[in-house]
């Protein structure tokens, strides 16, 4: 490939309005950030509880680096399994009310590891259409038969379960908070179905961990089905503010994943200090439930005001709020206009969302002040 070839390919993307580039942030990840010399209120981050730069987390990391150094040096299975990894896994298992937990390099890798280790050739994996890309990649690479049901359509899922009765194992995989619409899966009904059809249920709580539930354990806790989920996947990178992913399940399932999952086996353990960071973040989640209450209360207020202004917020009932404008150019123009007012709210276009449903995607943090929210609502009121 010559430079011209690459340019041509990139121009093709640009012509479709799909060329992307990186935005440089020149401050720590807080609810206000600096970019291109300007301060912006950040409505584009998964740092839902403000823990990415929280002093309790950063001071724990500094001490951990002094004690444990930086790298893990090897795959966890070779010599990279250190005490902070084990401690964090015990904390995560208790937090998720599971027998055992396994830390993976990212949430993406955790989905690859869990779904690929569980689904073998001949098995059937059943997916919600709006599941996260990592789940779809994981299912496609598993060798199992993959079937997709329309978003939230559990009667269609039931028909798929009937039709895949011959598969040795049926595995339903779902997000608990869907990342583009901000709505929730109906986990009690999914549990009912998986029991009736003797399937397994894997729930990805990436956006819910730390935010939903009395203890902050996620939507499974909030909907009262914690003990009925076979495998929970989560991330340490969203509300917990760091890096890494995890799987929580019965000890034998975790043992099977350790023994068979490439995305866990053939990769280096995360730095021990990253495990300490996640434990410090969990301390704050446990100690300060007002953070999750605050972010969900802000979400109610923002949704209600936007709806009163005539904006469509779709089925959102979480800290993720889409403002659906339809046309891709209009979404981009609106995002640009908000940025001129000092508000960072990304536009989401096809193919990430279906054609005609381009939107702004507001992600709230417990650290957004009433003034931050007021500025957002005022700007969207003026743009209406
Ligand atoms: C973000 C996300 C992931 C990936 O987590 P990372 O730790 O960022 O790799 C997986 N699943 C869902 C539903 C997500 O939203």
What does this molecule look like?
- There is one protein chain.
- The model has no long low-confidence stretch (mean pLDDT 97).
- The protein is built from 15 helices and 13 strands.
- The longest helix has 20 residues, at 289-308.
- By secondary structure, the protein is of the alpha/beta class.
- The radius of gyration is 21 Å and the shape is globular.
- The chain has a seven-stranded mixed sheet, with helices on both faces.
- Helix content is 43%, strand content 16%.
- Pyridoxal-5'-phosphate (PLP) binds at residues 106-108, 111, 132, 134, 175, 179, 204, 206-207, 235, 237, 245.
Helix-strand category:
alpha/beta
Main sheet overview:
7 strands, mixed
Q: What series of H and E elements makes up the topology?
A: HEEHHHEHEHEHEHEHEEHHHHEHEEEH
Tally of helical runs: 15
Parts with pLDDT < 50 across at least 5 consecutive residues: none
Q: What is the overall shape?
A: globular
Mean pLDDT: 97
Helix content: 40-55%
Lateral arrangement of strands in the main beta sheet: 3-9-8-7-6-4-5
First and last CA, distance: 46 Å
Query: How big is the Rg?
Result: 21 Å
Can you give me a brief rundown of this structure?
This protein is an alpha/beta fold and 384 residues long.
Note the main attributes of this structure.
384 residues; alpha/beta; three-stranded mixed β-sheet; 15 helices; binds pyridoxal-5'-phosphate
